[in-house]
Specification:
Elements: H1 10-21, H2 32-39, H3 53-56, E1 66-67, H4 81-90, E2 94-96, H5 109-117, E3 122-124, E4 130-132, H6 150-158, E5 166-176, E6 182-194, E7 210-220, E8 228-234, E9 242-247, E10 252-255, E11 287-299, E12 316-317, E13 325-326, E14 329-342, E15 351-359, E16 364-372, E17 377-387, E18 389-390, E19 393-394, E20 396-397, E21 400-401, E22 403-412, E23 418-423, E24 434-435, H7 440-444, H8 447-454
Organism: Methylibium petroleiphilum (strain ATCC BAA-1232 / LMG 22953 / PM1)
Pfam family, one: DUF1329
Protein name: DUF1329 domain-containing protein
Length: about 450
């Protein structure tokens, strides 16, 4: 029997061959990034079956449909196992939106420009750290837009988490118990400041041996108000970050051990520092990176910002009391690479490995699962991203419309607790979401700032 090269199952065969070889070159019908550089349109890199759920499912699921327990089996292979469980057994629904074809809607503008400008200039040095072609710290954008190994994919996640030189995200968090009741509600600010690997190509004064500062400030409720952490990352990814924090009960800044990265930030929360961006630890304190899969997947990459609602807070649904999940839109991501890694630098970590699904269009993770030391699913992380415009509402990032993460759902598969949080306009204490802020380091990224903010 003659098999046509570009029949409906061509992409499946292509992805299976790529995964078997352990490589992740982007594009199916042709290399992705030359096409992006020419037009920002990904259409010619993929067959029709990967560009819409309608074609992929042969009309069984259409754009605009909801994925529910009644039809989830059709798309089971497009979901991570925890998302499938949520839909199949917990009453969750997901609405399908069109696949994003314009790559400019999947990046902050300056970061995309840096990725295109610096394409081909990154390499891994003798220690497996990312450097520019001259051996100096990376100069901005995704270092490996056409990543071919698990470590290169991880580097794209690690070098600049939020893909902005700095940002302050005001976050509202809800902790949902297994019975669907609300156990905690927190307000906190997540602050990032890259010193190197910046889209502007500059190095923050005094920060040439560092990669980033990351601070977390809890502003409510009153029993955790003032709790804060400062994470200082070295550029050398073999080194553990310096971690200090301010605890109101002790009224002083104290240093925390490295293994504190695998503990909840505050009571009842599933989020650990290790979990941030599926790359919360220096990438060389994890090891045994390998690509284990490749193919299309459903991911929340567009139309997920609720800028037309008060404080951007979104509707919820599903679970025992219809409070467990955020309302969610997903699109068919045509090309997703899956890699695994193990916490080789953390012998006491409760995590045995992580599995990360990364959309090769923008090299951002769309799903992330950690496994315990027995190999059982521990926690899942499902992020959402969007171009921040909806109707007549728009949030700017300098001269361009902003791109940002819009929600995260972190589910403990073993005890049924859900941590769900999202950026909002402002939180208790008056902190507000903003990007590329002048003076952010002095205001938030020192031990004196921890003390000042805590009191």
């Amino acid at each position: 029997m003659h098999i046509r090269k570009y029949d409906h199952d061509y992409s499946r065969r292509f992805f299976m061959e790529q995964a078997a070889k352990g490589i992740a070159t982007a594009g199916v019908l042709g290399p992705l990034w030359p096409m992006i550089a020419n037009s920002a349109d990904i259409t010619k890199a993929y067959p029709d079956e990967l560009m819409s759920i309608d074609a992929w499912s042969k009309g069984k699921i259409k754009t605009g449909d909801f994925i529910t327990a009644e039809n989830v089996e059709i798309v089971k292979e497009l979901l991570d196992p925890v998302a499938y469980h949520h839909i199949k057994t917990m009453g969750r629904k997901i609405r399908i939106v069109p696949t994003t074809r314009d790559i400019t809607r999947m990046f902050p503008a300056e970061y995309l420009e840096a990725t295109l400008r610096n394409q081909g200039k990154a390499k891994l040095d003798a220690n497996s750290n990312v450097v520019s072609s001259d051996g100096k710290p990376w100069i901005g954008g995704n270092p490996f837009p056409d990543a071919k190994t698990g470590l290169e994919v991880a580097a794209n996640l690690t070098m600049c988490w939020g893909r902005k030189d700095n940002s302050l995200t005001a976050i509202r968090d809800w902790e949902v118990a297994p019975d669907g009741s609300m156990s905690y509600q927190y307000d906190f600010a997540w602050v990032e400041q890259n010193t190197t690997a910046r889209a502007d190509g500059k190095v923050l004064p005094g920060g040439d041996e560092l990669l980033r500062y990351n601070a977390v400030y809890f502003t409510g409720p009153s029993d955790v108000k003032g709790t804060s952490y400062l994470n200082t990352w070295y550029y050398d990814q073999r080194k553990f970050p310096e971690l200090v924090g301010y605890l109101p009960a002790f009224k002083r800044v104290r240093k925390f051990p490295t293994n504190q990265r695998f503990e909840p930030l505050v009571p009842g929360m599933n989020l650990y520092l290790s979990d941030a961006w599926a790359a919360g630890d220096p990438m060389l304190t994890w090891g045994n990176y390998k690509i284990v899969g490749r193919g299309p997947m459903l991911g929340a990459q567009s139309q997920t910002w609720y800028g037309d609602r008060p404080n951007w807070e979104r509707p919820v649904q599903g679970g025992p009391k219809n409070q467990t999940f955020f309302e969610t839109q997903m699109e068919l991501c045509p090309d997703v690479v899956i890699f695994e890694a193990e916490p080789t630098g953390y012998p006491r970590a409760p995590v045995g490995k992580k599995r990360v699904w990364v959309d090769v269009r923008n090299q951002m993770y769309v799903a992330y699962i950690t496994y315990d030391r027995r190999g059982e699913i521990f926690k899942s992380f499902e992020p959402q991203y969007s171009f921040l415009e909806k109707g007549d509402k728009k949030l700017m990032d300098g001269k361009s419309t902003a791109w940002h993460w819009t929600a995260v759902q972190c589910y403990n598969f073993q005890d049924g607790r859900m941590t769900r949080f999202q950026p909002v306009t402002s939180i208790a204490g008056g902190m507000s979401t903003a990007f590329n802020i002048d003076g952010l380091y002095e205001k938030y990224m020192t031990q004196q700032a921890l003390q000042r903010m805590g009191t």
